[in-house]
Amino acid sequence: LRSGAKVNDDIYITGTIGGARAALLMNKRSFGYKYFEKNLKNPQPRVDVGLDLSKYANSCIDISDGIAKDLKCICDDSKKGFIVNIDSIPRRVHFEKYVKKSQYEECLLGGGEDYELCFTAPSKFRRQIQDISKKHKTKITKIGVITNKSCKYMSNSKEISISSRGYDHFKI
């Protein structure tokens, strides 16, 4: 469920984020598009990882509408907040090489279609979560923590405001 996040839970993401949105923003003949094309056309849903994580996670959502929107769904349903370190959000190795700096936020926070998982779990399960990561050969990265109320994004130890709100299916 999305409603199980507890204060002080760790926030995690599987795989890497932003590749699908990056591909959408690029010319289809560019090297960048070719680099990110598989993220857009062949995402790898983490069903097997999710099944194993269900023993430890308090809440979970697939990142189909962007972290900004999907993590907010967890926090709204759980009546909690979060602190997310944007610098720790996992991205493909050459992300900075192909994505314009002005598009980082849109790709990492607002873009969806990566179909990775965002989940929360008590810190006492960190070892088990890393064991699941190794078992499935899937990167699982801690990006933040659940708080009592406010939703904050941090970068270089400073709070930043973001404009990304995620994908809205009903916005024309």
Q: Care to give the gist of this entry?
A:
With 172 residues, the chain is an alpha+beta fold. The protein has 7 helices and 7 strands, in the order βαααβαβααβαβββ.
Number of strand elements? 7
Strand order of the largest sheet: 2-4-1-5-3-6-7
What do the pLDDT scores average to? 92
Strand share of the residues?
15-25%
Give the uncertain stretches in residue-range form. none
Estimate percent helicity: 25-40%
Largest sheet: 7 strands, mixed
SSE series? EHHHEHEHHEHEEE
Morphology call: globular
Q: Report the C-alpha radius of gyration, rounded.
A: 15 Å
Give the distance, in angstroms, between the N- and C-terminal Cα atoms.
29 Å
- By secondary-structure content and strand pairing, the structural class works out as alpha+beta
Number of helices: 7
Describe this structure in words.
The structure is a single chain. With 172 residues, the protein is α+β, with helices and mostly antiparallel strands. It has seven helices and seven strands, in the order βαααβαβααβαβββ. Strands 2-4-1-5-3-6-7 form a seven-stranded mixed β-sheet. A hairpin with a 2-residue loop joins strand 6 (151-155) and strand 7. Helix 3 packs antiparallel against helix 7. The radius of gyration is 15 Å and the shape is globular. The two termini are 29 Å apart. The model has no long low-confidence stretch (mean pLDDT 92).
Features of the shown structure:
172 residues; alpha+beta; 7-stranded mixed β-sheet; 7 helices; 34% helix; 22% strand
